[in-house]
Amino acid sequence: MNIKPLNLKPTSIAFLVSSVGLVFSSHSFAVSCGDTINTPTLLLEELNCPLTVADPYALTVVGPIGSLRMLGNGKILCDNASGDGIGGVLMTGITASVIGGEIDTCPSGIILEGSGFHSILNIEILNFTENGLEVDSNYNLIAGNTIIGLGMAGTGDGVVLTGTYNTINNNHIEAADDDDDDDGISVTSTAEFTTITLNELENNGDEGIFFEADNTVITYNFSNFNLDNGIRGTSDSNTIARNIVTNNQGGGVRLGQTASGNLLNNNQIHDNIESGIRLAGDTTNNTIKNNQLSGNTDSGINVTGGGSFDNIIKDNTAMDNTPYDLVDVNEDALCTNQANTWIDNNAGTADPMCLIMP
């Protein structure tokens, strides 16, 4: 095979060089603490920012044109000795983005406000003392980040959401490991239509995922080694499917208060200190099906709520849980109450035993 040399005319070489130059010249390089970023901007070095009343954020990024990309040694380090700081980065406007690099030792890592449609991608948000991310706007994408709190009492949540239609995808989240009020992801009551998928949540001081909003979708997550439940919810019409929930100090998945119309499908829930799945309070009209549960203390599937009726529990496999695989406090010894519907579950023990009898 003959390989011909590539002969470029001087004008072609000049065009190529100028084109490469345009890629970099379209970004601003000069970044100082307290700046408001309205154009595409690169941060290539460590930025150590004292936070004050006048400058409570290290940087502010304003969309639609403003964006911050941290490359190489690009890093934001906060000094909040004044106690007046709020966060590392404030995002406002619409379609702003922050990509790459590290945000360290800020009260909160990033706060998303404005009209939303922002992107937070591939960032390490470390040693925050309040919340890693505060999502107060809609339709944002948060993906590929590592979010790890300072690990002290008083640390907040890894991600706390109040806006709607947000997507939390493929993040590693550890809010803190020694407090009782720091969830990995907290979906507040206003944050409807949140999608949480493919995240790893571990060593959080409270729940791995806690949701109070309706229409939340929680799929393909790992929620392990949290100090309370792997997943807990109190709202309606949510989907919890294909998650792996293990080794939590509380239970695996817990629905409480008046949670209704939820689907728990095909989750693997093992070796939690409390129940694998617990229906507490006045939970009604939920469907629990095709889940695999083993090694959980305080039973595999446990209906403990005196007002928990009209739930369907079917086609689950619950084995080697203690003291029982299946429990329903609202059913009598012969299952004549028919408070909930138990169908075709594969289990070794139950209270009452009629829950697994044909």
Q: In a nutshell, what does this entry contain?
A:
The protein is mainly β and 358 residues long.
Shape: elongated
What name is given to the CATH topology?
Pectate Lyase C-like
Largest sheet, described in full?
A: 14 strands, parallel
Provide the CATH architecture. 3 Solenoid
Strand order of the largest sheet: 1-4-7-10-13-16-19-22-25-28-31-34-37-40
Q: How confident overall, as mean pLDDT? A: 91
**CATH class placement:** Mainly Beta
What is the rounded Rg?
25 Å
Any chance you could write out the topology, listing elements then pairs?
Elements (H helix, E strand, L loop, with lengths): L9 H16 L10 E2 L2 E4 L2 E5 L6 E6 L4 E4 L4 E5 L7 E6 L4 E3 L2 E3 L3 E5 L6 E3 L2 E5 L4 E3 L5 E3 L2 E4 L9 E3 L5 E3 L2 E3 L10 E3 L7 E3 L2 E3 L6 E3 L5 E3 L2 E3 L6 E3 L5 E3 L2 E3 L6 E3 L7 E3 L2 E3 L6 E3 L7 E3 L2 E3 L6 E3 L8 E3 L2 E3 L6 E3 L12 E3 L2 E2 L2 E2 L7
Parallel strand pairs: 1-4, 2-5, 3-6, 4-7, 5-8, 6-9, 7-10, 8-11, 9-12, 10-13, 11-14, 12-15, 13-16, 14-17, 15-18, 16-19, 17-20, 18-21, 19-22, 20-23, 21-24, 22-25, 23-26, 24-27, 25-28, 26-29, 27-30, 28-31, 29-32, 30-33, 31-34, 32-35, 33-36, 34-37, 35-38, 36-39, 37-40
Structure description:
It is a single chain. The protein is mostly beta strands. The chain has one domain: Single-stranded right-handed beta-helix, Pectin lyase-like (Pectate Lyase C-like, 3 Solenoid). It contains one helix and 40 strands. The strands form three sheets. A 14-stranded parallel beta sheet has the order 1-4-7-10-13-16-19-22-25-28-31-34-37-40, with no helix packed on it. Strands 2-5-8-11-14-17-20-23-26-29-32-35-38 form a 13-stranded parallel beta sheet, with no helix packed on it. Residues 1-25 have low confidence and may be disordered.
